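REQUEST FORM: STRUCTURE PREDICTION
Request ID: SP-0412
Submitted by: Lab K.M.
Chain count: 1
Length (residues): 528
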Amino acid sequence: MTTVDGWAVAQTPTETRADVHGAADDLVAEMMREPDGRTSPSVYETARLVSLAPWLAGHAERVWYLLDTQRPDGGWGPPGGYALVPTLSATEALTTALRSPPSADVPTLARAVERGLDVLSGLLRDTTPLPDTPAVDLIVPALIDGLNQHLTAEPWRWPGHTRLDLPPGMSRRRIDAVRQLVASGAPVPDKLLHALEVVADLAPRARRVAPVPPGTVGASPAATAAWLGGPDRPDGSEALAYLEDTVRCYGGPVPCATPVTVFERSWVTSTLARSGIALTAPPGLISSLTANLGAAGTATGPGLPADADTTSVTLVALGRLGAPVPGDCLWSYETDEGFCTWPGEDGFSVTTNAHVLDALGHLAARGEAEPRHHAAVRRLVTALPERQDPQGSWSDRWHASRLYATACCVLALAEFGSAHPTTAEALARAVDWTLATQRGDGSWGTWAATAEETAYAVQILMTGGQQRPAVVEAVRRGYAYLCRTDGQDGPALWHDKDLYQPTLIVRATVIGARYQALGWLSSLPVSA
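STATUS: Completed
RESULT:
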């Protein structure tokens, strides 16, 4: 047993808030040294480069990455439906690589493909709805088409495996519509550019599609490679340089999206500041957050469309850094239900709306809000509890863990909806659900214990649980777990074309929860 400001905390190293503040300063300094931001490599995206760009530097490293990340059961990625996209992509890529195997021997590649096809035969028959990841209804049909071409062309190589069918409930309607649109020469909507590789055969001829600095199409290595078509495209030097730089940075494998400067910097800044850590903006931070902030807000990174989620978090970050800007750019996302992530979005994102509530609530708290702002805050404070699950949590399309969505909603409602009659009940139900899902070692996690999800849980309990004995004990145990980890354990949980981990954002979440927990625990009576 050790003590933290008078509290007995089991298996917890002694640390002070100054120690944690120092870790936050180090994190911000590291963030500023990597202007493109950093996320985990993607099996899906790496496999697309294996198929589309075998001429690109690092091809052998990408093939070996796919072989090394194959699960013991033959699939790739997380459990359940989340495995479908990475397993399809990796299996198709390794089938393509068999035609000219780079250093990996043919039997090794063939065994990996055979095992992947075995897993796919089960995944594609599963009637459980697929996770709502971006462009899944385009990616899955495109990859199945690619694999079916291999199976048809070389049936002797894959005895026992027939043509693959779409999973139950999925149709070709949207992929066929996208193919028709691109083939017609019509403008391609910005939100489709991130997944342009789904029409790789048409992408090099897509009219009015061109890379944006630093040479990316849709902030995606795969989409950029699809547009480029090959290393000798006359107008492709910037795109080729972008791909080569990305490969060099990641050592062969690539992430789903890069650069993600605004996304990383806004989330890290707002997360640390919300936990009570006083931040001094280093040179270049504020200008990087405002550089592309326009009438429609800002985007996660160059080549992506502006969205309400990134815009809201950026507005909060700028306000906490002492450089507030008006929130009028959010009105273009207002709908009858609340706020969409981008115009035309299918469904309702609770985390986007929680972040909009944060942004508008901060404007109101600074006395800069107009009647329209206050009306929107009231609507959101009502809308979020209406979408709470019966057990007390929230789920969302941008993250695999209910703890992320629940933390977003709890933090926003507690800060800006405390006067509303439904808020107290919503917070109490969220706390009860969080208490019930703690693991025996003090952690939380969807598939396994993770520091990221434990940090969200600790924030939920401290924000919405008051100082009940059960809550205090759960926070103590959760804090002790966070002190035993480095903040980067566990699987990728954030939604893109497959799951990814925004490395520094996750570390900021863990640091912020530790800092907040130290203050929260020290405020309690020693006898508690």
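NOTES: The radius of gyration is 24 Å.
Reviewed by: T.R.
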